[in-house]
Amino acid sequence: MKLRTFTANDVAGKKVLMRVDFNVPFKNGKVTDDARIRAHTSTLKKLLDAGAKVALVSHFGRPKGKVDPAFSLSQIVPDIEKAYGLKVVFVDDCVGQKVADAVDALKPGEIVVLENSRYHPEEQKNDPEFSKKMAAPFDVFVMDAFSASHRADCSTCGVIDFVKAAFAGDLLQREGEMLGAVSENPAKPYVLILGGAKVSDKITIVGNLLDKATTILIGGGMAYTFLKAQGKEIGKSLCDEERLDFAKDTLKKAEDMGIKVLLPVDSVVADGLDSTETAIASSDAMPADKMGLDIGPETVKNFVGALKGAKSVLWNGPMGVFENDKFAAGTRDLAKAVAEATETQGTVTVIGGGDTAAAVRQFGYAGKVSHVSTGGGASLEYCEGKKLPGMEPFKID
After folding, report:
1. Which are the catalytic amino acids?
2. How far apart are CA 234 and CA 227, in angstroms?
3. Which of 55, 132, 265, 315 has its C-alpha lying 20 to 30 A from 230's C-alpha?
4. Whole-structure pTM value
5. What span, in angstroms and rounded, lies between the C-alpha atoms of 397 and 392?
């Protein structure tokens, strides 16, 4: 997907409201991962280099439409300054005269950070009057928060109706370009890798991409629903009983269409997540008292082999409970193979989904694939073929 972006002339000397995603992991008073902050560096630099006066607006946590100090963006200002190498002004609201005054006081090339947009209940209702208030001090709106683009909020799309010009930022454009490359008209052979816990989370993505895929690899907890649909014993493994018919139908459709579907032939099994003992069990001989918590070594070999010669890969959902080292090997080894395909084959490899992105970062492969999406729900909905309210206004046909 190509989006309408800005030039220096579009924003020079203008007052710009830029929607970012500063909804970062925050624990014990500290930001534990500033990747989402740093993701906006390119767009912000272009605006500042052009001499724009920039206000950054974001949500943070779930304050449920009320002022709550626990969700104040003031807490992460030091991390914002560190990520961008700039001093910033903080305003304790995102609408009103104090915002207008702070923006007016900026010199070209300076920025102000606004308070949590979700302190106001009107934000998530996409209330036109609130959008008008939010847009009032500004000439231009730049949408760069892909991870919030599936939400029709005032700060993601509502303000567009009340500014002179609106554009997509570099991050939003990059997400559209890369996710489009693996979901709209992917180069083949195309390998779709699906994992995670629930089949229900992937139903629409399977429906949208089934006819585009060459091979589908299914791991994670959702694989056991498919294995049970084949009549196999899955022990105490996760199973979405209500989706067994869907699993059967998907396997049949894929077979009829000549699409290869690979399921686990073995699993790392244990009594439960807290078990100290693990074993490898064949998918044809799963112990009734065990649960599968990661794909096994033979499955890894099969999945890695399926990547050979691939021109496009989309991966959404980990292969096991990767947060626990006992059940991390499948996800880690597949991440390594995807990274190697990127380097040695020139495969376009896109990681979508929050857990999968967290996994490839954890294992050190985030910089070795073509693209790691910054949006969990947004990337999933994009690949499901849904129109995202925060992207559609900038779409170039």
Report:
1. 36, 198, 354, 377
2. 7
3. 315
4. 0.91
5. 10
Nearest to 388 by CA among 143, 220, 73, 141: 143
pLDDT of residue 160: 98
Q: Mapped to the 3 state alphabet, what secondary structure does 102-121 carry? A: HHHHCCCCCEEEECCHHHCC
Task: Return the residue matching tokens 């939003």.
Answer: 172
Residues 6 or more apart in contact with residue 291 via CB below 8 angstroms: 235, 236, 237, 238, 269, 270, 271, 272
The alpha carbons of the chain give a radius of gyration, in whole angstroms, of 23
3-state secondary structure of 10: helix
Closest CA to 177 of 393, 374, 371, 397: 371
Beta-strand relationship, 291-295 and 266-270 = antiparallel
Q: What whole-number distance in Å separates Cα of residue 31 and Cα of residue 25?
A: 6
The amino acid sitting at 124 is: Q
Average pLDDT on 315-320 reads: 96
CB 269 within 8 A of CB 287: yes
Supply the pLDDT for residue 61.
Answer: 95
- Distance, in Å, from the CA atom of 254 to the CA atom of 250, rounded to the nearest integer, reads 6
Neighbours of 114 (CB within 10 A): 26
